[in-house]
Amino acid sequence: MMAGRYRLIGTLAAVLTAFLAPVAAHACVQPADICETEGPGSFPLLRGGVPATVYVDPDADPAIRRVARDFAKDLGRVSGRDALVTSDLAAVRGPLVLIGEIGASAALERLVAAGRFDAGDLAGQWEAYRQTVVDNPFPGVASALVIAGADRRGAVFGTYDISERMGVSPWYWWADVPVAPRQDIFVAPGMREDAPKVRYRGFFLNDEDPALSGWARKAFGGVNAAMYEHVFELLLRLKGNYLWPAMWGKAFHVDDPGNTVLAHEMGVIMGTSHHEPLTRAQAEWNAEAMGPWDYRANGAELRQFWRGGIERMMTACGAVPCDSLVTIGMRGDGDEPMSQETAIELLETIVADQRAILTEVTARPAPETPQVWALYKEVQDYYDQGMRVPEDVILLFADDNWGQIRRLPQPDAAPRKGGYGVYYHFDYVGGPRSYKWLNTNQIEKTWQQMDLAWQSGARALWIVNVGDLKPMEFPLDFFMEQAWNPEAMTPARLQAFPRDFALQSFGDGHADEVARLLTDYARLAARRKPELVGPESFASEEFTEMLEEWDRLLHSARTVAADLPEFYRPAFFQLAEHPISAVANLYRLYYSAAMNRRLAAAGDGRANRFADAVRRYFAEDRAITARYHAVNGGKWDGMLNQTHIGYTGWDDPEEDVMPATVRIDAPPGDGFLIETAGNAGWSFSVEAPDYARAFGSEALQWTVVPDLGRTRGAVIAMPQGQAPTAPADGIRLEYDLHLPGGEVPVRLLMVPTLDVRASGGIRIGISLDEGPVRILAATLRATGVAPVNPEEEAWEEAVRDNAHVLGTIFTDVAPGKHVLKVWRIDDNAVLQRIAIGPETGRYLGPKAGGGEP
């Protein structure tokens, strides 16, 4: 049985036998395993195309009643025949699926009292579930699959878990992933249970104009409950429980009051973004024209406004408060900092006043209402300068908006009741340039940073900004699986994840090839996000190499697409072929613009051919988008309306602008213009995983993370989150080199990371042979739109190149064999490549430059 969420039926290859090679029938192995072969004591979810009956108690929570209906439809998606949903046990004959909540289900209590179901210690756990086959549970019922939740969401997750394992992808609607038809599905006897390790897990719909908003208006008439029903279902199928809603000019609770009720009924915990306190959207404040967003000048109005949000939370969902995690604190108007002179004391006063509102409106002590304080951008500075909030509040650290976590708890920090969390980004509006168009996120980088967060104690809340949601399917799926059980997301599971995702989405026939496409696309796209690419981005030689890589990847994608049955093609286009086609075309566009300008400057008439190519590729960009919008009869029309060509600053252009070209009246030249990157000399590069020897310790071992970074992969010391070490500890990598002698420059290419401990930088050691260890330190500091110091300039360069360079020069080196040693000093140092020799300008390029080690 496969690890992670992708514990599928053993043979997806049974589908479309004309396409997939026949395989042996899969037998159930683990308790509550799912397979297509009936074994002793197994439960028939489907037998001969007939699904089991689904039962929920008549007074079951709305979230459980809804998931029961979804599960019945999922059985129909597999078999072609929806299951019957009933609340009348006496009328049931034949196999039964019972879905219930411990302590709130009379049917479950009957089984427990009769000794037919062992609830064990399930009661009281957070979102835990137990699945087990029970023989002769009720009169007339020979067997039942019991899905019991410790609470209502536990029952929901336990049910969607069965759906996914029988072949219904969480992305069946959002990415049109098809469901393979089957006639027989059985559940093995025995008990299986699971529970999340991170308490709150979810995503943030953000930067949603013009794409998500425009699409929603066409598809649903607006960003309303009809749209959110699909969002909530996806979140729950991914075993998430928490959402920050779209907020650009929107007010979730006001735009459609049905949003609030629906979220609560489905079991979704609602929050608001880091600058929208006490459930109130910024758009509500603007609409009510209540004066300046300034606590000193307008505190009374702000308190009244916030009180209204908590009053709504207490009443909008009926007899119980709406399920919420309340954001506290305050930022400036429109996601800006408050005034530079804002005092910590003022923000502490604001938090105290907000908690007083919670106490007064809920008639309960403030700690009984879950709360989070987001340490985003300048708010982290207040925290670093000593501001503190009560122990029951979750402290939500953030990344730098580009995937590098900025701060984590200190190793010696005392436990706090509320715990810590992380706000991460797959999408961002800000400097050095906004990136909102496509997925450009490596799951390997997400894993490294979020594993660091887990190991460092940030375990209460994980939330990720996914922009428009599409096209972030692949990294979001990964993020949510890691959030459910970070300990299970080992390096081996990380490496297996793309294939399992491909297997679930496209069957076994091309799972390996699709996994490689997804991984290689993310690696190439993350080298430099498309919004940061332009005609002047690269020297000609490097540009050519990158274009060749994209063309090879596109050829592979088209080869797979041509061989896939039509059954899979809409999903394959959305998840793999489209982003590869779009970015490959963008590189052709900018490469042609670069060559046009360089040839025109040389008076070479071939510049005109490249000018024509620019126009052709610009038109192709629109055609690729139009093809996406036409998928499945126009289901996603408008979803890719985000502009992405023609950036001149950090913010996106109002419309795509074709790069300027030059036409000249001159014949083609005799030669082909190649711009070299300087004198390569004897320079060469070594990939970090290609070490000759690795020396760890009892507590720390070097681990290769394939594909992390720009090329082959990176190396880190694990487990992460550990204290600094010294060269005397001997934790090092050794590389055997042959050097020409004399002066030897060495540059370590690091995957960008930030000093999460505020300890003065991330240190790493380097030495040659038996020489002394030199300590190099990465002191990057994240900025906003414009850098103001060298550390911020270095950060901007690092996020642009997805690499940070640390260098030193060894002198008086004798010619011949040498051993270069890289020493582990600080945690979170991620080595991806070593460049040796005179700087060529190509050590960031796709290929290792110069000679051989």
Give the C-level CATH assignment of the largest domain. Answer: Alpha Beta
Please tell me the CATH architecture of the largest domain by its name.
Answer: Alpha-Beta Barrel
User: Quick one: how many beta strands?
Assistant: 29
Q: What would CATH call the homologous superfamily of the largest domain?
A: Glycosyl hydrolase family 115
* CATH level-3 fold name of the largest domain: TIM Barrel
Number of domains: 4
Main beta sheet: strand number and arrangement?
8 strands, parallel
- Which oligomeric form is depicted? single chain
Q: Based on CA inertia axes, which overall geometry fits?
A: globular
Mean of residue pLDDT values? 93
Tell me the structural class.
alpha/beta
Query: What is the number of helical segments per DSSP (H or I, 4+ residues)?
Result: 20
Q: Record the strand order, biggest sheet.
A: 13-12-11-18-17-16-15-14
Helix content: 25-40%
Strand content: 15-25%
Question: For the CA atoms, what is the radius of gyration?
Answer: 28 Å
Gap between N and C termini: 43 Å
Low-confidence stretches: 6-25, 672-679
